[in-house]
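Readers outside the structure-tokenisation community will struggle with the description of the input data as it stands. Showing the layout once, in full, would remove most of the difficulty. For illustration, here is how one protein appears when written out as sequence plus structure tokens:
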Amino acid sequence: MPADLVIGVDSSTQSTKALLVDADTGAVVAEQSAPHPAGTTVDPRSWLDAFDTAAAELLDRASAIAVGGQQHGMVALDAADEPVHDAILWNDTRSSSEALDLIAEIGGPEACAEAIGSVLVASFTSTKLRWLRDHEPEAARRTQRVLLPHDYVSRHLLGGGDPFTDRGDASGTGYFSTRDNAWRLDLAEAALGHAVELPRIVPSAEVAATTDSGLVVGAGTGDNMAAALALDLQPGDVVVSIGTSGVASAISSTPVADSTGSVTGFADATSYFLPLVTTINAARILDLQAGLLGVDHVELSRLALSAPSGANGLTLLPYYDGERTPNRPSATGTWSGLTSSTSREDLARAAVEALLCALADAIDHLCAATGTPPARILLVGGGARSQAVRTLAPAIFGAPVTVPEPGEYVALGAARQAAWALAGTPQPPTWTPVASETYEAEPTPLVREAYAQLRERTSTWT
């Protein structure tokens, strides 16, 4: 009897990716994708069109499906389930002042972390609801239901009906208690100014819904939770993901509530917790530098590896689009040490080192909050395909780095969740481990010291 096939979907900032996967082994059978519009505000219906394109030839072959999606995005719907406003995405920082207001209303950073596991920043959904209340009051008044991006796409599979989500993605809204594993309806109401309907929360091991054709639909989850599920993340592992955002995450058996705001205390897609640290600027640091130098990413790596450690005194603080860690929403990029002798190689090297220094800071914050040093560091995401990133990461991080083979880990994690719901077992299915390669290098602490000095020197500029 042939094995069941399942679909995992990654509805990311940039595109929808759909994988058809063997439910028993995790082997990818087929994959398709479709782009999303650019920008930090997007008509969410464009995601549905992209899903239809990416999944069209796969749905009839599958027994189950689950959707992983970008976290935090606000999908505000009216009584007819039509969007009242374009979805405001995680990387839109317009609600930074609203985040401060909400923190104060909850009782300060410590009370906020205790209430929801995290200190609010502009990425969180609740801050976007408050922005809607204050800047688009008519749209806020018409809002009756709020979904996250993955909820919105999952519901599309059923043609409407009762929406659902999971605890992992819910923990990034700003109105979910990770300690109580439940919505804080009062916080959602306070953010928007009136009561609002939220989706039911479904555990990953359960079937969220079944389509008319008999397709099992899993709960879905946030992108970081899906990637952790794909990699079968274990205590002691730290995963550093270099995509549109940079993320350092780990599994914890107990909830984390960091009142400094550096670590967000999310739940994961199982019964554990996923504390993580996020940077807004990640792979685009490399994209911008390649564009400025007029080269592709292969040549950018070659240039970077041709320069010495420390880029001959050139240091970059890469907060091009504001930053979340540290929380500097109005920041811009800062170069220090430019001279008439600065070379193209130095410019490339400084960009790669800056990306990795920002992520090394993220690892430090994560380990301080969990009290656990990393036993293993895994490097994933599109930025990890850069030879310069892979080569320099262990030097900047000060530890060996394991790089799994390139893959669509958010979609793969969603597929594993779909297989889990299909099986109905207490634990997710055991799949063949992902092939990987380990990189080692002598630590270069002077690079991080120069970066830290620039970071602190500019703390009052932004």
Summary: The longest strand covers residues 15-22. The two ends are 62 Å apart (CA to CA). DSSP finds 15 helices and 24 strands in the chain.
